[in-house]
Every structure is written in structure tokens, then in C-alpha cells.
Amino acid sequence: MSSSASEFLSAIDRRHSGEQSVVLRYRNCLRFEESPAADEDFKKLLDRTSIREGLRIFPLLTYRDVEILVLDETSLMHTHTLKSIDGAVSIARCLQRGYRRIAFESGGNTGTALSVYGRRVGLETFLVLPGENLSLLDSAVFAAPSTHLIAVRDRARVKQVSSELRKRDGLPKVPQPEWRLEASMFIGSYLLEAMLEGLQFDILAQTISAAFAPIGIFRVLRQQRPELGRLPSFLGIQQAPNCPMYRALRGGETGGGPEEVGSTVRLLTRVMYDASPQSYGTVEELRGILDETAGDLTLVDSTDFSQLLKDDFDGAGILSVLAEAGVKIFIREGEVVETTGLLALTGTLKEIDAGRIAAGSRVLVCLTSGTGRPDGKVVPEVWAEEWATAG
Fold first, then answer.
1. Is the bond preceding 226 in cis, omega lying within 30 degrees of 0?
2. What element of type H or E holds 296?
3. What's the whole-model pTM score?
């Protein structure tokens, strides 16, 4: 990471806009390897793996005298989620290590990104995901013979199946946690540039699972704290039916815990199916961010989400307000297909209604997904239960 604001700004590759690729724009602002030569080699690999990883910020609405801005991490991304950045970074790491075949588990978004970005550079990929999430995928992504898809009927066994597959075929585990933090640092770099140029906001709100995104973002912002002054507070939003980070950091009985959810269908965001994301070792770093920024965590449930879709904002529904700003959330059979990004907005409005976000505040809401157009026609190469029987 550049040691001063002036060094950071001078390291930006202005041949590439943030709307085109934050990976290419900010790769020279970050340090990935101790060795300068190795660092340069990795950055050349990012040139090779980047497709489109675009971000933008726009004002959305004012609600109860709170100004809400959106960090759009969906409409300008190649795979229409912020996981496009993970795809570019993780696949570059795979090339750096000479991997030709990789396996990974996912609820959908990360798996799609790794499959797309991996196929583009000739990697053979194996995605393991909950079978109930097949409807969240686009069949075109998995049409190539080198792009494999293994579905698991029991979502609690996804990690186990993925581990067994890697052990059986000698495949590396990707992405590594540090790669996911590196990907999030590109978002932090985008925000840092905007803040150095005058963007002001009091709260950063995002839906979280293991919280890689805020950790990576605040790693970047913290480095420039003398220039920025007070950092924005972080508001993390989790779905009430599966809220392990909330339980770990806020405690108490919330109901609808992970042990009660045997199916992803009951989840508000099915891509965040993991009942133990704290196993990645991110709990204490998230705790540090909450303490340092006077931040908080909150929960949203299906009633909260339904209310968001019903509410009127100056004569228009929230999906119409977003569409007017150029973000067209995908609806299939009357339902929002990928809800993760909208849950951040749901939690923000809930906190405003509860008086925990004061009038006069400015909130930047991370809209991480929603504009993809999955056809839901994916047929897995194999169901894990049948594969295990055959093996």
C-alpha cells in the first residue's frame, strides 16, 4: 500500500477508469509481494486476468433526512457481482502458482466468478455448491467441458464434498482467505481515491458473511487515516436466519440460527448459505473495525425485506428508484433472484427507522449484486451423493 496520499494518487493507472476496472486502475497502489520483482510479476498477471471490474457511486434518495448513496458493485461487473474482483485476483494467484485445475465451494456468486475468470485463461475448474442454488446460476457459464459443476443436496455437506474432491484429485483449495482480502482492498482503493477527492459519508453499510469486504476496505482506509481524519462507521447487515457473525460479536438469542436452517430456500440470500464463516478467522478483525469506527451489526428478516419492496419513495418503489439510476434488479417470476445487495439497503432503512442512524447522516450502501440475469437452467455434471456412491 502506498505510504502517503500523494504516493497513492500518483500510483493510480489513469489509463483505466474505476468504472472499467478497479483491478487495473489501482494494482500499482497496492503491494502484494515482499520482492519487488515478484510483486511486478503478479501485477502483470492481473493485466491478463482482468475483464471488467467496475465500480461507481451515485446518490439514491433521502430518507428521514438521511442521505443515502450507493456504491454500485453490480451493474459494471463482468459477472454482475463484486466477486468479479475476486475472480481476477484469485485466478491471477492461481496462474502465479502454476495451477491448471482448481476446486472451490460457493453459494453461487464467487463460484460463478472463479469459473468464468478461470475458463478465460485456460484453467479447469470444479465448483461445488448447494443443489438448491442451481436456479441462481447461468447455464452459459458452465457450458464449457473444462468448467465442472457438482451439486450437493445437503447444504451442510458442501465444504466436506469440496474437501473430498480436492483430496481425491489432488486439487488446491482456492481462494485462500488472503486473496479475498486482497480483492477487497481494490474496493478500498476506489473509496480512498473518492474520499481524497472530497467524497464524504458517515457510515459504510454492507451485507456480510465472513466480512472479507469490510476488512479489506478498512485496511486501505486505515493506512491513510492521517489524511482522511475520522473513518466512516461500519454497519454490517446479516440475514436473521443465518447470522453467525452477529452471534459471535453481539451474542444473545436471535432465533432462526444456522442450526435451524436446513435448506437455503429459507434464507433471504441463498448465496450466503455458510453457517460458519467465522471459521475463516475474520471475527476479531471485524470486531476491531466495529470498535475503531463505533460501528455495529444488525439483522434483517423476510418481513423487513418485503417492506423495502412495498415502501413508497416519493411516488416510486425502490426497484424503480434504482432503475432510474441505471441499476436494473433482475426479477424472475415476480421474485428478486439475487437479494444480497438489497439486504444492505434493507438494514440501512431499518436502522434509520429505529433512530440508530441520525438525521443529517450520509450513508454509503454497498450494492454488491442484483443485476445479473441467470437463466436458472443449469444441469450439474453430477450430484455429490451419486458421485460418492459411484466412487
1. no
2. strand 296-300
3. 0.94
Distance linking the first and last C-alpha atoms of the chain: 47
In terms of DSSP H, where are the helices of the chain?
Answer: 5-11, 22-26, 36-49, 83-96, 109-120, 158-169, 177-196, 212-223, 225-228, 244-250, 283-293, 302-310, 318-324, 340-353, 384-390
Longest dimension (CA), the chain: 62
CB under 8 Å to 244, separation ≥6 — which residues?
258, 275, 276, 277, 278
Query: Secondary structure of 146-199 in the HEC alphabet?
Result: CEEEEEECCHHHHHHHHHHHHHHHCCCECCCHHHHHHHHHHHHHHHHHHHHCCC
Q: Is 333 exposed, middle or buried (0-12, 13-18, 19+ CB in 10 A)?
A: exposed
DSSP element (H, E) containing 101: strand 101-105
Distance CA 172, CA 100 (A): 10
- CA-to-CA distance for 56 and 190, rounded, in angstroms? 9
Contact 185, 28 (CB under 8 A): no
Report how far residue 391's alpha carbon sits from residue 389's, in angstroms, rounded to the nearest whole number.
5
Spatial distance between the Cα atoms of 186 and 8, rounded to a whole number of angstroms: 12
The mean-pLDDT minimum among 113-122, 258-267, 327-336 falls in 258-267
Alpha-carbon distance of 322 to 59, in angstroms, equals: 10
Q: Which residue has the cell 502465479?
A: 96
Asked whether residue 259 carries a pLDDT value surpassing 60, the answer given is: no
- Residue 359's SS3 state is coil
Rounded distance between C-alpha atoms, residue 24 and residue 181, angstroms: 17
Beta strand 382-383 pairing with 147-152 = parallel
Q: What is the pLDDT of residues 45-81, one digit of tens each?
A: 999 999 999 999 999 999 999 999 999 999 999 999 9
- Give the C-alpha separation, 239 to 256, whole Å: 10
Determine how many CB atoms are found less than 10 A away from the CB of residue 14: 8
How far apart (Å, rounded) are the C-alpha atoms in residues 332 and 318? 17
